[in-house]
Amino acid sequence: MKKPNVKEELKKSKGFIDEFKTFIKRGNVLDLAVGVIIGGAFGKIVSSLVDDIIMPVVGVIIGGHDFSNLSIKVGNASIMYGSFIQNIIDFLIIAFCVFVFVKLINKFLVKEHKEEVKKEEIKKSEEVLLLEEIRDLLKKNNKKK
Question: Which numeric CATH code is attached to 11-144?
Fold first, then answer.
């Protein structure tokens, strides 16, 4: 069995710590933290929407059943498939909201990118302008002859 080299291990951990410091210093970490916090709060809102509003309405529509208590007994264990159905609905609502949000962001970014491309197309280099001028002069001279 090979003995671990303490110097190599310290070097590796130092590199890892430096890499972590660089990661922390980036602005993306703050954005990620805000996203996680808002995502957690959004998840609670969606869970409340499903548990307190959608599922009771669905229960009334299908005959007054409460989904959260639906279960099947298998031996001594209970399979809570009603809770599973509520979690699926939670997921679908969150996935739909994220889809709509990403679609809106992408639409905005694509529009912004198209505007940048148009601005870049309008700007011509001095060489191109000079060549176009020479072309136009040559066309004029050919018409005169």
Answer: 1.10.1200.120
Distance CA 58, CA 51 (A): 10
- Cα–Cα distance measured from residue 23 to residue 39, given in angstroms and rounded to the nearest whole number: 21
Structure tokens at 65: 């059943």
Q: What is the pTM of this model?
A: 0.47
Contacts of 72 (CB under 8 A, 6+ apart): 78, 79, 81
Beta bridge partners of 72: 79
What residues contact 126, with CB distance under 8 A and at least 6 apart? none
Q: Within its chain, how far is the Cα of 128 from the centroid?
A: 41
Each residue's pLDDT expressed in tens, for the chain with a length of 145 residues = 566 565 666 566 677 888 777 777 766 777 778 888 888 888 888 888 877 888 778 777 877 666 777 788 888 988 888 888 878 887 888 888 878 888 888 888 777 666 666 666 667 788 888 888 899 888 888 877 6
Query: Could you please report the per-residue DSSP string of 26-55?
Result: STHHHHHHHHHHHHHHHHHHHHHHIIIIIH
